[in-house]
Target: GTP-binding protein 8
Amino acid sequence: MAVSALRLGAEKLFEMPAVLRRLSRCQSTSQAFAEVLRLPKQQLRKLLYPLQEVERYLAPDRRQDLHLRIFNPSPEDIARAESVFKATEHNRIEYVSSAIRMDHAPDLLRPEVCFIGRSNVGKSSLIKALFSLAPEVEVRISKTPGHTKKMNFFKVGKYFTVVDMPGYGYRAPEDFADMVETYLKERSNLRRTFLLVDSVVGIQKTDNIAIEMCEEFALPYVIVLTKIDKSSKGHLLKQVLEIQKFVNTKTQGCFPQLFAVR
Model:
C-alpha cells in the first residue's frame, strides 16, 4: 500500500549515516544536495516528502476509492536524477530554440516532455529549478503573468528535450490555442505532459481546457501541484483530495500520482 511504502521509505531515508556513505560513492552528487542531506531530520523529511504531512489523512483503508500514491524517491534516486540535469562536458544541457508555430519548432529526435499551466502558476520557475545545475542555461521568469509567449526548447543531454509552453489564461498569446493544441496533437516524440495546477486555487476552468486536450489526444500527463508552501495544511489536504478524486473519476490518461512542489 502506498502509505505503508511511504513509511518504510522514510524509515530507510533516516538511516542517514548509511545513506551518506552510499551517496559519497556517487560522483554525481553535488555539494548542494550533500548539504541538503545534512539538514535536521524533520526539515529534510518535509523537503523530500512534501505531502507526508497530510498522508495520514489519506490512508488507503479509509479512502480506497482514491488509490493515492505519494512521490517517494530514495536519496539514491534523487542523486541519479540530479546527474541527468547536471551539465558536464559529456552531458550538454542547453537552450535550443523557440517557436510560435509548429512549423517553426526544431526537428528533434529525442523524446520530449512539456510543461503547461495557467499564467503565473510557477512553470518557468520550476523549469529554472530543474536546470539549477546548468547555470549557463537561461530560463526567463517574471512576476508578471503571461511572460512566456513562445514554445521554448531545452536539450537535456542525450536523454530528452524539455519544452516550456506559454501560459494560458490571463495575458496568454492570441494564438495560444492553435499553438498548443497543434503541438500536443502533432508532436510525435512527445512522451509526457506535466500540467501545473496552483495549490492555492486548485483546478480552474482554463485548466479543464488543457486537460480536455490531453484526454482528446490520448496523451499521458501528470498533474503537478505548485506553491504548496503558500497553502495551509488543511487547504492543501482539501486540494489534494479534490484533485485526486477528479483524476480518478474524470480522466483516462492522467498519471494517478500527484506531484507537489514548493
Confidence is low (pLDDT under 50) at residues 1-16. The beta strands are 93-99, 112-117, 151-156, 160-164, 190-198, 221-226, 259-260.
